[in-house]
Amino acid sequence: MYEKVFKKLAKSEFRSKFKLREKEKIYINEKGLDKIKLHAKDFISKRIAPAEIPNDGKQTPMKGHPVFIAQHATATCCRGCINKWHHFPKNVQLSAKEQEYIVNIIMEWIERQLKS
Q: Of these four, 35, 68, 77, 92, which has the most CB atoms within 10 Å of its CB?
């Protein structure tokens, strides 16, 4: 479903450098994918979805949670990247459908990482 965007992301040296380490894989296996998806939904709704984000471009840490790593790998880390890579406008509240898309692409990336 997301092959086109994953092929595009694979061409980015910056996006391609993000990988889940053993520590994050263990965390995911302990929590379960359903719990990780709930974390992703929460992070996206609070940090990414609002129309105005005071610290846009700096709101997603580079490490500390598998979802944060996935956000950088999938260019869903800030509204600027989301606009550039996924073509959702900035300064507009993300719809439920747009948020679902972002969460799903994050989870797809995580699942692919768990298989690699």
A: 77
